[in-house]
Structures are given as structure tokens and as C-alpha cells.
Amino acid sequence: VSHSSRPPRKISDSTVRRLSSYLRLLQEVDDSTADTISSDELARRAGTTSAQVRKDLSFFGSFGKRGLGYSIPELLSALRAILGLTQTWNVAVVGAGKIGSALISYRDFRKRGFDVRAVFDSDPAKVGRPWGSRRVLSDEHLEEVIRKDGIEIVILAVPAEAAQGMLDRLVGAGVKAVLNFAPVRLSAPEAVALRNVDMAMELEVLSYALSNPSE
Amino acid sequence: VSHSSRPPRKISDSTVRRLSSYLRLLQEVDDSTADTISSDELARRAGTTSAQVRKDLSFFGSFGKRGLGYSIPELLSALRAILGLTQTWNVAVVGAGKIGSALISYRDFRKRGFDVRAVFDSDPAKVGRPWGSRRVLSDEHLEEVIRKDGIEIVILAVPAEAAQGMLDRLVGAGVKAVLNFAPVRLSAPEAVALRNVDMAMELEVLSYALSNPSE
DNA sequence: ATATGTGAACATTTTCACAGCT
DNA sequence: AGCTGTGAAAATGTTCACATAT
Does the predicted model carry a pTM greater than 0.90? Predict the structure, then answer.
């Protein structure tokens, strides 16, 4: 009995991240081996505890069968529904520098339901450059293309100085979700989902760990 | 009166990340404007609260002056000491694909005390390729170069299937800190600091947010 | 007057432990 | 017997509020 993806309270970030990792793990499971998986097994693979797995899922419904575990296909589709992955999302990359260019062709994105449909840059030297069967667009056309192509998520990979200005334009154009790679704190309206990937910060956390062993 | 960087208890990940963000913000502050900064001002810029700033710092010592705030140069050097950034760390990038290549020349790394000294790949087509004044090395020489160059931190940017095998080699060669970009859960001994950057997961968190507005 | 440092209160997240299905 | 779903307990993280110092 599974009441698929009921509207929940307020779900923590860490829960959502774990749900994403459960989904990835299940997609990798050799489904010829078993049709079903226990919270214990899933926890082992995800590096967490079985109670955590069950609690995370319980916020959204009852997807398992007592005494048996979770049907892998059912859990897969439940997780996809929860995470909003029953649709393909239209993505644009803004900034065709080193990192932006690397992300454009990141195969994992498409594989997991994110379709990069446009790439923008403000540098005339980069505008017109081919990628796949398309070309890098001038950011003059940002608002227009975002509307025309129905861009829902933007990967922001511009220099730190340009990031806030560009974010403001994106918000103005109606973008509701941004993944920012620039090492600055950005501000956006409440209604806009904004996440940051800060690689220098990650290295600094490693530096801290190296400097303070065994803690 | 500042008892610089006393050895602390167990510091949470979020505290370390905030300390890193305080450091970055202070480095950007125009120090001609003011010599001193309050927890309130720092919090405003970091997107947190003044109590949080003071608590984070208090785990390591007393760096401020009551009634005045924190001396910017003193707080800068305290944060650098806490985060282990008084030294330059020797970094290697393993995997010279799109993402690895983008990271090699990420200017922020060097600016913040991380020196990329070697790049490895297992693909003969990539080995020998120039980057800066150096060349991509074959991973045959991994262990040897790691020891010779004193590599302390590795940025792992190989395909998911190769990541665990490569991590095992890195650990064998004595590497104690790894930043993993492959979308797999890796396992390493306790003593090894391992962090993951999973861009598809970040997009899935955005997908969740888009699908569940205003929560 | 102003702003830190911190114990205590509060909030959130994780773990425990067990009743309830299959 | 086996494994889920979930309240209750424990642990962890954040905010309050104020004594303390300049």
C-alpha cells in the first residue's frame, strides 16, 4: 500500500539529498538479482542507517512491505515522483568559461533528466562557438531565449563579479532555480531556489580536516 | 586578547564551512574603509546571524574586542590558522577529462593556497598534453609522483566506474584528503578526509524545490 | 554606549526500540 | 520470522539573552 508522494511538511535539505542518493543507488542496482531491497541494504550502500532510510521515506508515504522490504521498481518511481523527476527540466548554462563548458557536456545531467538547451556568454570571442549541434549565444538574448525555450533551471558559471548582476537578470526573466558556481554569496527572492557549489570552500574544509586529524 | 586557534572539541561541518565563508568575505572587504568589523556586519554579509558568527569563532578562542568588534587583520590571520591555510597545500588532479581540465586552471585555488602540481590520466591520448608549463602524466607514475611532489590533497575527477579503484591507490600512496567529483559513494579509511561534489544531486535538490514551491 | 563571549533555552535531526503487517 | 513505519529519546545545531569588557 503506497500513497505516492503525499504533500509533506517541511523537508530538510539533508533528507532531500539522501533521497537523491537512494535514487542513484537504485538506478545502479542490478535488478536481475532481486526485485526487492530492504532499508538495511539501501542504508549500507548509501552510507547511512536503516532507520534513517525509513524515516526519510516515511515523510512522503509508505512505500515498503513489512517483512519484505521495498519493491525496487516501485521505490524508483516513488523517488522520481518525490524529487520532481517525472518531467525533463530545461536547463541553461550561463557562462561558457572553463567550468561552464565542462558542465555543458556533462553526460550525467541528460541521463538524469536535465536537458541543457542553451549556453550564454557575454564575451564576443565565445559567442558563436559550437557545442553539440548548437552555438553559444550572446547574453543579449538571455531573457528572450529563456522564455522561448522554457528554461527552468540555470547553471550560473560566470566570474564572481558578474554573478549577482546576472542572477538579477535571470530572476527578472522568471527563472526559479539557480545552481551557482561563482564563489560569492548571492541574494535572490525567497521564491527562487538558489544553491551554491563552492569548490574552494570544499578544499578549505579538507585543509581543516588535515590540520586537525582524528576529529 | 586572542588565544589563537586553541585545539577544539569536535567542530561541525557547517561551522567549518561558515568559517571558510567568513574568511572569503573578509578577504574581499575593503580594508581602507574600516579596520574593524562586528559580528553583526559579518553575519549580514555571510547570510547568517551575529550569534552564529560569535559562536563559531568562540570554539577556537576570543578574537574580538568587546564594544569594538573584530580587528580585520587579526581575524583574517586567526581564520587562516584555524583552517590550516598558513601553508600552501600540494594538490593533484586525477582525471583530465572535461571537469578535471576545468579545475586545473581554476584561478581561485591558487589564490587561496592550493597549488595544483600534477595532473594524471589513464588515457594515452591525454597523457603528455600540456597544461601551463607542465604535462599530463600517466597514472602509472601516480604513487611515485605523489611521494616525490608531496601531494597532500587530490581532486578526483575520473569516471564513476574508476573512482573507487583510483581512490584505493591514492590511499595506498598516503593521500589523506580527497575531493571527489564522481557521482558514486566511495569508501575510504576513517583517517582519510573525503568530500563529494555531486552536481547531478544539486540539480535534483533544485528539481525538488521547483516541484514543492514555498516550503 | 557598544559589541563580545557564553551558558541556557530552543529547534532540528538522528537514533532507538518496538508495535504492527506480511 | 522478517522488515517496515513511527512515536519517543538522544544528540546535535541554532538562537536567546545577558554578564562582561572596552
Answer: yes
